[in-house]
Design brief:
about 120 residues; alpha/beta; Oxidized Rhodanese, domain 1; 5 strands
Length: about 120
Amino acid sequence: MSPAFPSEPGIEVTPEQTEQALADGTAILVDVREGYEWDAGRVEGATHIELERLASKSDELPKNTTIIFNCRLGARSAMAAQAFRGAGFDAWSMAGGLERWHAEGRPLVPEDGTVADH
C-alpha cells in the first residue's frame, strides 16, 4: 500500500486527500489534460504531462514517490494511474478531477483560473 494512502482501497483518492498529500510532500501531482486545459487553470505545484505523451515521459517520474494523476473529471487520470500501477509505480487518480477540486473551493492558478471543457 501507498505511504501516502495506506488504507485507501481502489485507485482513487479525494481532492482533500490529494491536497493533504501535496502539503505533506508525500506525493506529486501530474496533470494529464491537454495544453489548453492546463493553461486555463491548474493546481499549484502540479506537473503537466499530456496523457498522449505520458508513456514516453514515464522515465521522468520518480518510482519511489506516490504519484496522483488528475484530469478534468477523473477518467483520463484513472487510465494513467492503472497503467502506471502496472509498471510498478505507486499511482492514484484524483476522484472527480479538477471539476471536483474547484467545486469544493480549492484554488486554481492562475488566480482567475477556470476548468476548461475537454
